[in-house]
Amino acid sequence: MCGIVGYTGTKPAVPILVSGLKRLEYRGYDSAGLAVETDGGILVEKEKGKVSELVNLLNGHDENAPIHASTTGIAHTRWATHGTPTQENAHPHASKKIALVHNGIIENYKSLKTKLIGEGYIFLSQTDTEVLAHLVDSFYDGDLLQAVTTALKNVEGTYGIACMAQDEPGVLIVARRGSPIVLGVGENETIVASDASAIIKHTRQAIYLDDNDIAKICGGEIDIRTLDSGTVSREASEIDWSPDAAEKGGYEHYMLKEIYEQPDAIRNTIRGRMNTELGTAMLGGLNLSPREVVDIQRLVIVGCGTSLNAGIVGEFATEDFAGLAAEVEQAAEFRYRNPIINSRDLVLAISQSGETADTLAAVREATQKGALVAGLVNVVGSTIARETGRGVYLHAGPEISVASTKAFTCQVATLLMVALKFARSRRMSVEQGRQFVKEIDSLPDLVNQVLAKDKEIAAVAERYVQYEKMFFIGRGYLYPVAKEGALKLKEISYIHAEAYHAAELKHGPIALLEKAMPVVALALEGPGKEKTIGNIKECSARDARVLGIITEGDEEAKSEVDDYIEIPKCRLHAAVVPATVALQLFAYHVARLRGCPIDQPRNLAKSVTVE
Ligand code: F6R
User: Does any domain span residue 422?
Assistant: First the structure.
């Protein structure tokens, strides 16, 4: 949430800052701004709305204007927390000779603000960030590193910041606690960003700051310390995906591109991780000896949103195939409800970004309680990946679309591998294991078969565009699919979509059924299908239009629904993946036909680093 970019070097800063902001726009798009060093002092430009609005503003400067000659600057794209999305609340915030951008929340901002007002500071915005800018200024006597260090010691909450002072040309001070900061190391230059997608165009060498790190950067010189001690060493690592991976590649939206990337993304997730001979999965990153795998008595899965939905599939598969007790829990709830955890529990934190504040807090709580904690994360080097120290990377490639797609299917593929690993160490035979390996191997092909139906799905979507509310129902493995389908639809089309366990419908929600409330029913062949068909009949009897997600060639199911999308035949734990892809395409086309801003849905941002 919120994207930060900074540049110090020898090249004009503005184009680098703006292209970085465009890359990070998925993290927030309420307002955007930048501050650059010029001979006449720090120049701040900011505007309400998307980065394109800021670009319009910058185009107002003629080409010889000082702003274009500047080689040092900071920039920000905002997802509002404190204060509405206005020009005044946009970052950077300035205080006398200091300018600052911030991602996170200053929790004690009220008491700091009162104190600073008492010292004569005048506030122009409603943001917590402006408090930080004035606080830094109040400690500034010519040494920005010192002033930021002192200010941050007085701050409660989370931050990723980049800060500059008029009297220290070429210098940026950056720091993090809870919100990510990556330094892209170039020749005589450094690019600062909230994530690697904003630096990959310039360099592949990245240094990820740890919590409580603070760095002074000038051109290519980087001095990293912690808030409480002297210089520390943080190794640079190589970003292993190409700049093209972060481009739209001819697709109209990142979301569509990422939907289409799923066969390859899943292949990358499972590559080298399955042993056909032994019928098992090899997940070295979990770093568990066979003895430890056997000793684990419970799998606890934590995550939020889409990752949480994938977690439900993991829970079902682990209990189903491994006979290992498993539960899945919303990460924020896990942290605050004081769960019972012990050293024989494996807590698996699922997160695409690896930065979600609630999931990170759950990781810390589980670690504190002595559990084995592992991450199932996409972004390499992210906080959850580093704090857990063990886990499985998805290798899905960068996911830019705010609506998560390929992360979900790669998470499911990984969770099936986790279930297989536990199953083979318990009650699953080698033959059954080999069958399971084949099923995981077939996932990319199953997805391709659904992608081939894109046009058909678009045609079905046309029949649902006009509705303002929709139910999704499913049972067993198809219940999390219903949840994920409803989540996709609501976030990008703004249709009020709710998912229910198909059996739950008659316990209340059925009261809402009417002509204006269609139902998407997951009714694939397998355990529970006949009961779901019964539920479909109940919906049709209440005049609701029914879209069935059904197994290819299932004539019985076809006769019960108004519209259908066919999914290739496979067992239900595998069918989760193609069925979800069908619902991703359905949501995408409904949103497209409704003219919604698919990659930037209102009020949302990717990587939710606030609680
Ligand atoms: C929905 C979506 C969110 C995220 C959630 C967790 O499309 O993207 O629900 O899944 O914010 O994010 P991660 O997986 O990064 O922890």
Answer: yes
Q: Hey, what are 263's tokens?
A: 């066969």
Tell me the residue ranges of DSSP E strands in 56-158.
72-78, 93-95, 98-103
Q: What pTM did the predictor assign?
A: 0.84
Q: Residues 417, 539: one domain?
A: no
Asked whether residue 610 is domain-assigned, the answer is no
Q: Which is the closest atom of ligand 1 to the Cα of 607? A: 15
Q: If DSSP codes are grouped into helix, strand and coil, which group holds residue 372? A: strand
CA of 584 to the centre of ligand 1 (A): 14
Positive or negative: CA dihedral 601, 583, 591, 410: positive
- Does residue 608 lie in a domain region? no
> 347 by DSSP, 3-state: which?
strand
Question: Which of residues 239, 270, 286 is at a domain's end?
Answer: 239
Max CA-CA distance within the chain? 78
Q: Residue 374: how many CB atoms within 10 A of its CB? A: 27
What residue numbers bound the domain in which 106 lies? 3-239
Are residues 27 and 133 part of one domain? yes
Cβ–ligand 1 contact at 268 (below 6 Å): no
Where does a domain end: 372, 406, 441?
A: 441
The alpha-helical segments, DSSP class H, found in 390-442 are: 406-424, 430-441
Q: Which atom of ligand 1 is nearest to the CA of 408?
A: 10
Instruction: Give me the torsion for CA of 476, 481, 485, 490, rounded to 10°.
Output: 70
Asked whether 608 lines ligand 1 (CB < 6 A), one says yes
pLDDT average per 10 residues of sequence, the chain (611 residues): 93 96 86 95 94 93 92 93 85 96 92 96 93 97 97 94 97 94 96 92 94 96 93 89 76 95 95 95 90 94 98 98 97 90 96 94 95 94 91 92 96 98 95 97 98 98 98 98 98 97 93 95 96 96 97 97 98 98 98 94 74 69
Domain count, the chain: 3
606 is catalytic: yes
Q: Is the CB of 403 under 6 A from ligand 1?
A: yes
Residue 468: which CATH number? 3.40.50.10490
Determine the Cα–Cα distance for residues 551 and 528; give it in Å rounded to an integer: 13
- Note whether residue 607 is domain-resident: no
On the CB side of 423, how many CA atoms lie within 13 Å of its CA? Answer: 29
Backbone phi, psi, residue 289, to 5°: -70, 160
